[in-house]
Design brief:
By secondary structure, the protein is an alpha+beta fold. It contains six helices and 16 strands. It starts with 26 loop residues before the first strand and ends with a strand.
Amino acid sequence: MKLSQFDFSLPPELIAQFPPANRTDSRMMVINRAKRTIEDRKFSELPQIIDDSYFLVLNDSRVFKARLIGHRKSGGKVEIFMVRKIEDNCWLALLRPSGRIKKNEQIYFGDDLSLTITDDPGKVERRISFVSNKSEQEIIGQYGEVPLPPYIKRTADSNDLSRYQTVYADDSGSVAAPTAGLHFDDAMLKNLSEMNIKAEKITLHVGPGTFKPVIVDEIEDHYVDPELARISTETAGSINQRKNQGQKLLAVGTTSVRTLETSADATGRLQPLNDLINLYI
C-alpha cells in the first residue's frame, strides 16, 4: 500500500486544541454497514445505539509526565522523552539533542543533579539513570510535562493531566492517551453498566512510536516500535467466554484493537499477554 493512499484534507481549524467542557459532548460518527449509512451523532447518544448484546474492551493505561526539560552543565537545554523503565531508577529515553550528549554526562533540573546518561551516543534510545536525592517519581512529578500530541499546538497546562486521561485509567506507563476512551465519563460508564453492558480491561502502554511520522512510500516498510501489552489470564478467558456466548465485542480505540488482534491465536481465541511486543495496526 502506498502512503499517498492515506492522504486527505483536514482543515487546521477543525483540530480541537482544547477538549469540550463535558467529555460526552464529543462528536461521534456512526457507520451502519448493513444499511450503508453514515450519521453524525454525539457520544452521549452511545447508550441509544448499543444494547446488552455488546460488551466493551477498554485500555486502562495511564499517561504519565513523560517529557522532562532539563539543562546541561553548560546551560544548554535538553529534552528527555522517557520511553520505558528498565529497572529501578533506570529508563530508556529519547534525548534532544542526543548526538552531542556523551556517556556519563549529567543533566540538571533546577539546581539539582537529577540524572546521568549512561551510554554512548549513536542509538535512538539512550539509557538514563536517576541519581538525585529525590526519587524518580518526585522528579517526574515536579519537572515532567504531559506529552501532548504534535497536532496540539500549545503548551501542556495543569488540566491536561486529568483531561488527557481516561476516567478509568489505572496502570501508569503511556506517553500518549488511548484517545477513543477520553469520551467516556463516570456517568456514561454507570449508565452502560446498568444496561448490563459490561466492560473488560486490558493494558497497552502507548509508546513514542505513536508520534513517529511515516516517511516511507510503501506502508509495509514502516517500522512499528514495540509497546508493552498485558491481558491477564482471567480477562482473556472472560472475553473468550463472552464471544462464545454470542456477545459482540466493542473495542474502544485502536490501542485495544491492536492488542486484541495481536493476542489472538489462529482460531481467534485470545491468549494472555504480558510482554514487550510489536503491534502492527
